[in-house]
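A quick aside before the break. I want you to see a complete sequence-to-structure record at least once, exactly as it would be stored in a machine-readable document. Don't worry about memorizing anything.
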Amino acid sequence: MTQIIYDGSYEGWLTAVFEIYEYKLKDIVFAKEEISNTLLFSNTHSITTDSVKANRVLNGLQQRLSHHGFNNLYFAFLSELDQIEEILFRFVEYSFSSPINIEGDLSRSEVLNVKKAAHLTGKESHRMKAFVRFKLTKDRLYYAIIEPDCDVLPLIEQHFKNRYADQRWLIYDSKRKYGIYYDLENVSTVEMQFESSPSSSFLAEINDENEEFFENLWRNYFKSVNIESRKNTKLHIKHMPKRYWKNLTEKIPNLNKK
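That is the input. The structure line, written in tokens, reads:
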């Protein structure tokens, strides 16, 4: 067995795919950045991300897949599901070995699992576009904290750049410890390290003095449009799962209180 050590990026994974073929590596398993102790008796192959090698794999896949199928690979990668790298590699391996497009062959587990993973990421991306709640800091920066199941920041940045083009904003993924920052011209990736999620007292300290007032206005609006007689908790949770609630202003009445 060969353990493939790569940097965790999509380009790094594509480079790994190229080198698996280049060096004819067999029985591969992927690990991000460091060697896994669960595979003590395996060989290791470290990957240095190479855009030329990555693009050669991409070009090969573009010739074999539809536009939708091609994009699904990236969406599936961002799902971060367990063993998704191995699943994707088996999909690529099958695609390269087949004389026809393999996207419709759902009898193969790798095809079906890639489709499911891509769908999961797409759904999470769509939800984040609706569930991001910005707050204003003293220095006029709008920020939002999210904790999605999938790594969706690369997929939602254009949406927020287009929608909020006239204001500086930062969306921070507290699960993955990085964010995207828009400076009125470009969107860039930023890394921020906290020992735990930013505390409510810390956020209250950096918030604009009128932020709590506007948060309360939003909570009151949310409460006023809610028709108690039509309350359907089961349906509500289906469309707004509880795992998102801690970052939704309307779900935390005393967010800025200790």
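Two observations worth writing down. The longest strand covers residues 2-6. Residues 73 and 114 are 7 Å apart (CA to CA). We'll return to this after the break.
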